[in-house]
Amino acid sequence: MWTSLEPASATVDPGSRTTVRLRVRNTGDVVDEYRFEPVGPVAAWTTVEPPTLRLFPGTTGTVELTFAPPRTPDAAAGPNPYAVRITPTEHPDTVTVPEGNLTVTPFTEVRAELVPPTVKGRFRGRPRLAIDNVGNTRVTASLSGSDNGDRLSYELQPGSVQIEPGRAVFVDTTLRPRQIIWFGSKEEQPYSLTVRRSGAQPLAVDGTFVQRGFLPRWLATALSVSVALAIAFVMIWLAYKPQVRTLATEKAAQAEVTALPTPSAPAPSAPSAPAVSEPAAPSVPEDKSGDSAGGGDSGSGGEGEEEEQAPEPETAADAVQKLAARSDGRHVCYRAYVADQGWQDPVCDGAIAGTTGQNLPIKALNIATVATGGVTGNGAHVNEGWYTGDKWSNAADGVDMYIGSTKEALSPLQGFTIKTPDGSVCFNPHIRDRGWLGVGCTEPGGWKYGGSPMGDKLQLEAVRFTV
């Protein structure tokens, strides 16, 4: 057979389509039927019409190749080779594969979201900015924060990002008010985080920082009244201090005058009476048994003894440090906060945390690693969606990292994202009514989601981790 692509190179925009003609001539001496099959990386969005062509000897036929790349990161920008496998029915061993080149134009699309959009605090707030690159080319952006009146300061880690197509990054943000509210009720301060890219309109994400007062207003009123009363009392005391006069001096003078003899009539001396000594008071022996017999509180009652405190529960960091001391290499330890049960004991390196078949969801996870450069994560709740949790969502080697929340008011987890700077994290989540979903692993330094599909909102019941 003889083939020709017209044109051999084509260009297409993601979300649109383009057509290339493929001409085929039967150079044999028998009637033959040819089957057409697209192959290569663009075959998923390539169609051939018609898929088969029947030609007499010496005749030529034409089929159309239609390329329709989606407007997603899967349509990689730049040149993409393509090919069509042509198989003749009469001579299946003489397969021909004409090749061409399809150039996909680049497009950029960035989405950003604050998690959570509203944070509360007296001295600082810590939201996280999630940035998704849903285009087909790498995005480089810088980050900044602003508000009306310059009432907040912003600390963004990192301050600039590079995001590959189809990837997402999380930026840790710390908001600090420039003035502290010492007394009074809370105040809402709107702010905005901006993602700036070269040659594109800045993308602003709005949020709210609710600043709480350090002390309630009623306490300020009570302190003011107390200070005013104290000052008034001191002033009154100084102004109307009572005059205190003692009569001891006058009485002593009168007693001395009465005791002196009169000079003109001296009194005859009388025989002195023998001095009578007063009997000494009988001594009372000291009761040394008063502490043991007199009081029942200081004996074996136990009030004077300190109560024995219960030992602190073991965390994931405690377990992974013990494991690292026994065995070199990368390790991960973790424990689950299960509804109606609380924190379980930590397990390590692929063991099951949580429960299966008991309809008890996981509300929070405590994870710690060694030899991975630390671990970072975030939890997705069934009702609230992404939520930063009660404690630290990123941690260094051998330090506890927490995902989710143990609060009664928050729904259980449906999934999580996780990454380590060095190496990969593999996980297998167990979802209600779905069972074990299978093992998924992160790329080195990249994020990976594990759990229920976000639209299904099914609770997470158990999980396994390895590094």
TrEMBL record:
Keyword Transmembrane helix tagged: yes
Positions of the UniProt region annotated as Disordered: 259-317
The keyword Transit peptide appears for this protein: no
Highest taxon of source: Bacteria
Low complexity compositional bias, start-end: 272-284
Spans through the membrane: 218-240
Pfam family for this entry, one: ChW
Protein name in the entry: Hydrolase
Species assigned in the record: Streptomyces phaeofaciens
